[in-house]
Structures are given as C-alpha cells and as structure tokens.
Design a protein that fits this description.
Length: 216
C-alpha cells in the first residue's frame, strides 16, 4: 500500500508563509524512517532536521511542498476560513501524490470535520485519516512535518538575509515583534511578508492610523 503523510509549518507565525508538505511512500519503507530517527519536527534541532530532510527525500517515492503567502492567508482569515484554507491545501497535495491512504495532522478541534473538509475538494480516491498529534504518532506525518519545517525555516532565512534580524517570525518572539513595530513605525504599513490579519499587527496598524509617528 502507498501511504502519504501531510503536515504544516508556520500556521501561527506573523511573518512568512504557511508551508504545507506531503510525502508519499510505500508502507514497506516506513521502518526505514523510524530507524533514521524521524520524529515530529518540533522535537528536533535545526541541524538534525536538515540532515533528516535529505535522507527522507532519498527514501520517499514522491513529495510535494506548497507555500501559502501571507496575502492569501489574510484573505481566508477575513472570511474566518483559515481551517478551510489548510484543508484545501492538503487536499491539493494529496491529489498530486495520489496515495491509497493519507494521514493528516488535524488543525480543527474536530478531526472528523477536518477530514470531511479535505474530502470536499479531493479528486483522487485516497482514504483520509485525520487525527490530532499525527505529527508525533504517525511516522509518515512526522516525515512531512520535517519537510514542511525545513522549507519554512529556509523561507524565513531568505527574508532575514534580505531584511535583517526578524527573529523566528512568531508573535511570541520579542525580536520578531520589535522588528514588526519598527517596520510599521518607519514605513507606516505592514511588510508584504507579514500577516496583517494577525491580531498583534492589526492592533499596531490601527494604533498607527490614530497617532502620529512621533507619538509612538
């Protein structure tokens, strides 16, 4: 049986894209992923993720990475359909890979509702298994989480090289929020690689529109 694992990286970030990745692999090769030390990307150091990334790509039968721009994220957030965006993106990846069964990490509080959302735009005949913590409990999803995380980190590194120190890109990071604050103060608007729909940035932009720069 050919299975797929699908996961995302950067959903909660205020900077950079949401990266969704999927891998396709024959069940007989899943053991190789375990022996390599594949696990949830959040439990691995960046260097370990990079090493496993190359090894995973050498073992899997196919893979696909989709980078969702902040502009597109903002559009779906404005309609309160962020989960739908993620479900549609995962369905698109599964359609590309065409496995017999696909395991996905559910972002919805209801894994079944998320499964149905994926099925609504699915064109291939794959069976969908949606669950919480699949990135930890399913080795194929763990592998996909590494692919997504490495690509997400590389996108942030490209922005950092061009712009300067932006931190991790998450609103919990003081360096990131300091960067966002200074950017809005200097330019009077959000950078193109930021998610203006995220509450901290939305509030900052509202504050800026009501005050003079000298009042910051």
């Amino acid at each position: 049986m050919i299975v797929a694992g699908v996961d995302e990286a950067g959903r909660g970030s205020i900077l950079g894209p949401l990266v969704v990745a999927g891998i396709k692999i024959h069940e007989s090769k899943l053991k190789q992923l375990r022996l390599m030390g594949v696990k949830d990307s959040k439990k691995l150091a960046p260097i370990a993720r990079e090493k496993l990334y190359r090894k995973i790509l050498n073992i899997v039968d196919d893979y696909y990475v989709c980078k969702v721009t902040p502009k597109r994220i903002d559009h779906f957030v404005s309609m309160k359909k962020l989960n739908a965006l993620e479900a549609n993106t995962m369905a698109m990846i599964i359609n590309k890979l065409k496995p017999h069964e696909a395991f996905v990490d559910s972002c919805d509080v209801s894994p079944e509702r998320f499964r149905v959302a994926i099925m609504s735009t699915l064109k291939c005949r794959a069976r969908i298994d949606s669950s919480h913590h699949a990135d930890s409990n399913n080795i194929a999803v763990s592998a996909a989480s590494i692919i997504a995380k490495v690509n997400r980190d590389r996108e942030i590194a490209r922005i950092r090289k061009r712009i300067g120190n932006i931190g991790s890109g998450y609103p919990s990071d003081k360096k990131t929020m300091r960067f966002v604050y200074m950017w809005v103060r200097t330019h009077g608007k959000a950078p193109k690689f930021a998610r203006s729909s995220w509450r901290p940035l939305r509030e900052l932009l509202n504050r800026y529109s009501q005050m003079k720069i000298s009042d910051f």
